[in-house]
């Protein structure tokens, strides 16, 4: 293929990404009629009215806080528990380790819709609907398989001699885990963290199932419900989209390389 | 760290979790210093302001009760309200649609029996039957709605059109609107359109009010003449471009906008849309009409009515007396009048004085021979969906016989 | 050297959560699939295979959703793999421009499905949407369509969104694979006078095949899980044209309150995914 054709293709696809994004960003600064008249152009004035309105009319601050809490706690505990398991798998006899590994990885094959119904009844009977902790517990449980998979894969590459040398020096398992396994797995831990971060931040299904009270809603769920409130008032909907995506976008700009590595690790292994 | 420390850590973590859980539920019940908070949930986003004012008034009259109102989009309300109410955490007072939703709520035992409550006397006995089951009043319908097209009176007068009383006349009227450059019918096909217009389209094709009960018993089929004819007529409207372009992609508020901008002659939803239209275009004069799908002498019904927005008290609530107080408050003449006049809704409450123009101009529909919203007499949500889907199918170009056949397959799945 | 018995303690916290909130519900789904539980009341009866029999003999909507799901999957797998491979071939080098473009193409991946659904609901809006507006401006009015309101094309319109959403992610996997190909292999191919296609066929493809296996497998699973996107865009309509298994299961459970039946649907769903993934792995492995 000649250079020109190649460049045109790349440019066209770039536009397919950029144009919708710019439309979103610009229209949050426009009124509805301004947007319909001129969807792609720059806004006439720098009007942040929509942002003010959305914070006044909805509990945006609460949703934001909930999303932050749920995401951070879920990511932390998933990583912690998964790294413990991954470490145990690498240190157990291959036979037993294999069983544990298999038990967790089989979970990656199960789509969320399969167990959502019993999961809903379980959470309901434990009185955990409309709690952030219920949401976190489920988040942690369902992302353990992929986290265990990635981390085990990595920890297996750590030379066994390192663990053993440490053990001979009298260190117990916890010390080996803390002093050897964790520091050496940092790259894969950070990659997994980002993968989980994106996944938990954006999750819709579990909040949709378990959360009905406004004060416990996370951003994606709240956003979905804006559809009822603002209907086809796209400038308002997009203002919601911008606020909900802002942390991801900012993090992506600064940590781009890690994001790409993390999301790819997740998909390669997941 | 030793093994012991590790065990301690697990215990601590468990506690952290449990603490977080109980913190969550503490907040949820959140009732400090003798004050009761009740949750009121419904689907009428357009009534938010009026309800805010009424709630303020209620809270002034009852200083120990606060009301937290949550509004859901109606499409979503139909699918998720049951689950939410079941928790008992929201919806001390909730609303229900008649029909399939009411049936599910009843089956799940979500509604407190309100029979014998004093406030029932404030309502018109004949209009609250939709909330009864086995002689008990589980929910009280609040609104009286006419689910038939709204039309632009001014435009009709200008073009010299009278609401027709037969199918020929209805087609001719549409043709005339089209010739003059108007979209005859603004059809909100992406959400409520099919479920609304089907009622008036079928009311005379199947004058039997039991028709959907019979369908669910297997005594009649969607492939029978009454439904195929209805679908054929829907298709005729679509094929002749009497609906706006891309009608299946238009949502209700989009269709309202077409109407308010006077681009369309009719809006195929119901009387509840009139207030929203007037809000966008206060000078418009609006009326109601229903398509008569048969010849004038065969027509049995003139329109469709529903009693809906059925107020109920959550049987899992721990503030039932407060919840009942709120329903009673809404049923008081003064408050009901405020609600009716500001939202443009007729109500099931007795002896109200309607002041707003649309309410007055449509009040005569109460005297007409209207039929209860047939779609709400379908008790299975799956069948309801299949019936609506067959309308979307013919508007999308499918053959009526085929669409009816496919919908009947779904019905067959549920008929023993 | 063994790690001692205390190693089992490391499994405890994760294993408890996983067994309780993942394995147990999954097995329960299997259990409930043999009942007529409605999810609202406490009692239910065992109905044996009745739910499964009903799904296979009577349920026309399940068939529709299944076919839609396959169409959706095929469209997404073909185009997402093709686009990401082609762009990866163009952007293999680590020049500033290609690093920038890779980051740009990747960008949609970090958004939530709900956000993506809003953006594209607007883009596709027949009257207000950007796509039809641009087509009008370009005098291509005959191409304007009711993208997600027309039952004949809605499923493809949503597939295209899915492709937009995740092509960038798959591209990175291919780039990683391509960058692992030793340069001298290309030089050998050049010396032997291979043309571009032959080079691709004989050098690039065999080495990029493992990456392709991953991309195809992952895309397949992803396309079966596109619940969020469809739920926020069309909820399965119009006329069931965008109903896929995931949305159907949700509706059966939480709209029709047939939890037992929905569980049977979900068990079949799981088996279908397992079969497809397994076959794919076999096929792609034997090719590579």
UniProtKB/TrEMBL annotation, chain A:
Q: Which InterPro entries match?
A: MetI-like (IPR000515), MetI-like_sf (IPR035906)
Provide the protein name: Sugar ABC transporter permease
Xref: Gene3D superfamilies: MetI-like (1.10.3720.10)
Q: How does it sit in the membrane?
A: Multi-pass membrane protein
Species, as recorded: Thalassobacillus devorans
Indicate where this protein resides in the cell: Cell membrane
Q: What is the lineage of its organism?
A: Bacteria, Bacillati, Bacillota, Bacilli, Bacillales
Coiled-coil annotation reads none
| Transmembrane domains' residue ranges | 12-29, 68-89, 101-123, 135-154, 180-201, 234-255
Give the family this protein belongs to, as stated in its UniProt record: Belongs to the binding-protein-dependent transport system permease family.
- List residues of the ABC transmembrane type-1 domain: 64-255
Query: What are the record keywords, sorted?
Result: Cell membrane, Membrane, Transmembrane, Transmembrane helix, Transport
- Domain of life, per lineage: Bacteria
From TrEMBL, chain B:
Q: Which organism is it from?
A: Thalassobacillus devorans
Would you indicate the residue range of the signal peptide? Answer: 1-25
List keywords of the entry alphabetically.
Signal
Domain of life, per UniProt, equals: Bacteria
- Please name the InterPro entries in this protein's record: Bact_solute-bd_prot1 (IPR050490), SBP (IPR006059)
Protein name in UniProt: Sugar ABC transporter substrate-binding protein
UniProtKB/TrEMBL annotation, chain C:
Q: How does it sit in the membrane?
A: Multi-pass membrane protein
CDD domains tied to this protein: TM_PBP2 (cd06261)
Q: Pfam families, per this entry?
A: BPD_transp_1 (PF00528)
Q: Where is the ABC transmembrane type-1 domain?
A: 66-280
InterPro entries hit by this protein: ABC_transporter_permease (IPR051393), MetI-like (IPR000515), MetI-like_sf (IPR035906)
What is its subcellular localisation? Cell membrane
Domain of life per record: Bacteria
Give the record's keywords alphabetically.
Cell membrane, Membrane, Transmembrane, Transmembrane helix, Transport
Residues annotated as transmembrane: 7-27, 72-91, 103-123, 153-182, 203-221, 259-278
Q: Identify its protein family.
A: Belongs to the binding-protein-dependent transport system permease family.
Indicate what this protein is called per its UniProt record.
ABC transporter permease
Organism the protein comes from:
Thalassobacillus devorans
């Amino acid at each position: 293929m000649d250079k020109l054709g190649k460049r045109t293709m790349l440019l066209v696809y770039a536009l397919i990404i950029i144009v919708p994004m710019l439309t979103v960003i610009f229209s949050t600064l426009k009124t509805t009629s301004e947007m319909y008249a001129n969807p792609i152009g720059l806004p006439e004035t720098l009007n942040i009215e929509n942002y003010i309105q959305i914070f006044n009319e909805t509990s945006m601050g609460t949703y934001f806080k909930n999303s932050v809490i749920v995401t951070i706690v879920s990511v932390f505990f998933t990583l912690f528990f998964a790294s413990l398991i991954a470490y145990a798998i690498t240190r157990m006899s291959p036979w037993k380790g294999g069983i544990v590994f298999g038990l967790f990885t089989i979970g990656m094959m199960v789509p969320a819709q399969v167990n959502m119904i019993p999961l809903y009844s379980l959470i309901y009977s434990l009185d955990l609907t409309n709690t952030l902790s219920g949401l976190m517990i489920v988040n942690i449980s369902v992302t353990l398989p992929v986290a265990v998979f990635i981390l085990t894969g990595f920890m297996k590459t750590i030379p066994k001699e390192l663990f053993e040398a440490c053990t001979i020096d009298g260190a117990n398992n916890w010390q080996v885990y803390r002093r050897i396994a964790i520091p050496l797995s940092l790259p894969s831990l950070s990659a997994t963290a980002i993968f989980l971060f994106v996944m938990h931040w954006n999750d819709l299904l579990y909040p949709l199932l378990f959360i009905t009270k406004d004060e416990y809603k996370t951003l994606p769920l709240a956003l979905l419900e804006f559809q009822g409130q603002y209907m086809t008032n796209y400038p308002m909907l997009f203002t919601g989209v911008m606020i909900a995506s802002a942390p991801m976008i900012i993090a992506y700009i600064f940590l781009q390389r890690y994001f790409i590595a993390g999301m790819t690790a997740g998909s390669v292994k997941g | 760290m030793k093994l012991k420390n590790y065990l301690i850590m697990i215990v601590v973590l468990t506690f952290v979790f449990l603490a977080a859980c109980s913190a969550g539920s503490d907040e949820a019940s959140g009732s400090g210093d003798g004050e009761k908070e009740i949750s009121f949930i419904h689907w009428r986003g357009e009534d938010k302001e009026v309800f805010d004012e009424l709630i303020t008034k209620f809270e002034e009259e009852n200083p120990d009760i606060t009301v937290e109102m949550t509004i859901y989009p109606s499409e979503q309300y139909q699918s998720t309200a049951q689950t939410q109410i079941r928790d008992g955490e929201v919806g001390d007072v909730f609303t229900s649609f008649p029909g399939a939703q009411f049936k599910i709520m009843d089956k799940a035992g979500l509604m407190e029996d309100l029979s014998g409550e004093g406030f029932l006397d404030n309502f018109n006995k004949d209009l609250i039957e939709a909330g009864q089951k086995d002689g008990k009043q589980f929910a009280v319908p609040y609104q009286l709605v006419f689910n038939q097209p709204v039309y632009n009176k001014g435009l009709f007068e200008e073009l010299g059109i009278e609401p027709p009383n037969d199918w020929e006349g209805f087609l001719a009227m549409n043709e005339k609107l089209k010739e003059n450059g108007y979209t005859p019918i603004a059809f909100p096909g992406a959400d409520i359109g099919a479920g609304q217009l089907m009622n008036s389209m079928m009311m005379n094709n199947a004058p039997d009010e039991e028709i959907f009960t019979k369908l669910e018993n297997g005594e009649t089929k969607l492939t029978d003449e009454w439904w195929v004819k209805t679908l054929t007529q829907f298709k005729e409207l679509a094929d002749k471009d009497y609906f706006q372009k891309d009608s299946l992609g238009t949502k209700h508020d989009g269709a309202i906008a077409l109407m308010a901008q006077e681009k369309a002659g009719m809006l195929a939803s119901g009387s509840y849309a009139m207030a929203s239209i007037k809000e966008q275009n206060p000078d418009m004069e609006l009326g109601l009409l229903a398509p008569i799908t048969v010849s004038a002498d065969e027509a049995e019904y003139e329109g469709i009515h529903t009693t809906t927005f059925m107020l109920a008290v959550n049987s899992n609530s721990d503030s039932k007396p407060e919840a009942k107080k709120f329903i009673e408050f809404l049923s008081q003449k003064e408050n009901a009048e405020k609600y009716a006049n500001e939202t443009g809704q007729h109500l099931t409450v007795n002896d109200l004085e309607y002041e707003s123009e649309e309410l007055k101009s449509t009040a005569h529909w109460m005297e007409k021979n209207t039929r209860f919203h047939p779609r709400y007499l379908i008790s299975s949500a799956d069948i309801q969906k299949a019936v609506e889907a067959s309308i979307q199918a013919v508007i999308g170009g499918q053959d009526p016989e085929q669409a009816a056949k496919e919908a009947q397959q779904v019905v067959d799945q549920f008929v023993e | 050297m063994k790690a001692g018995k205390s190693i089992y303690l490391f499994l405890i916290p994760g294993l408890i959560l996983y067994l309780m909130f993942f394995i147990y519900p999954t097995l329960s789904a299997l259990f409930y699939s043999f009942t007529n539980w409605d999810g609202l009341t406490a009692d239910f009866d065992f109905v044996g295979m009745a739910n499964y029999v009903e799904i296979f003999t009577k349920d026309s909507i399940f068939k529709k959703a299944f076919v839609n799901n396959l169409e959706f999957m095929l469209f997404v797998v073909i185009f997402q793999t093709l686009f990401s491979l082609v762009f990866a071939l163009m952007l293999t080098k680590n020049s500033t421009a290609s690093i920038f473009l890779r980051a740009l193409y990747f960008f949609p991946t970090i958004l939530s499905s709900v956000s993506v659904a809003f953006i594209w609901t607007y883009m596709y809006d027949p009257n207000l949407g950007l796509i039809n507006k641009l087509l009008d401006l370009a005098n291509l009015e005959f191409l304007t369509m009711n993208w997600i309101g027309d039952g004949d094309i809605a499923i493809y319109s949503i597939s295209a969104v899915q492709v937009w959403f995740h092509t960038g992610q798959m591209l990175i996997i291919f780039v990683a694979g391509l960058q692992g190909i030793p340069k001298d292999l290309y030089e050998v191919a050049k010396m032997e006078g291979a043309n571009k296609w032959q080079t691709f066929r004989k050098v690039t493809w065999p080495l990029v095949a493992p990456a392709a296996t991953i991309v195809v497998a992952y895309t397949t699973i992803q396309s079966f899980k596109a619940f969020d996107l469809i739920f926020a865009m069309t909820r399965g309509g119009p006329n069931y044209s965008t109903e896929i298994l995931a949305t159907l299961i949700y509706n059966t459970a939480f709209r029709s309150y047939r939890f037992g039946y929905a569980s049977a649907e979900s068990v079949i769903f799981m088996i279908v995914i397992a079969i497809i993934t397994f076959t794919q792995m076999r096929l792609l492995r034997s090719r590579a």
